[in-house]
Amino acid sequence: MLTSKQRAYLKSAAQKIDPVYQVGKSGISREQADGIAKYLKAHELIKIKILDNNLLSASEAANELASLVGAEVVIVMGSKAVLYKPNPEKPVISGTL
Fold it and tell me: Architecture of 4-84 per CATH?
């Protein structure tokens, strides 16, 4: 569980990154979840765009993805979601975390 200070730090770090994955009308696939998990292992923080033609809302899609990959939802704003999963072997994000 992230504290409010950790969440604020991650939100500010996420402002500088572009969405890497998109969730579209086909929903969330296992291959997509695997790709997101690999990206999170390397970078710890990911921004995902949830397209309007998706059957799930942005928060529902973010929560489903987070549970599939074992991450935490940092924020869902509009059609974008930010997920965080720390890498215990090689931490990338330090600072207040």
Answer: 2-Layer Sandwich (3.30)
DSSP 23: E
**Domain extents in the chain:** 4-84
pTM: 0.91
pLDDT in tens, 16-36: 999 999 999 888 989 999 999
Tokens 């770090």 belong to residue: 13
Contacts 24+ apart (CB under 8 A), 58-67: 61/23, 61/28, 64/28, 65/23, 65/28, 65/33, 65/36
Q: Are 11 and 46 in contact (CB under 8 A)?
A: no
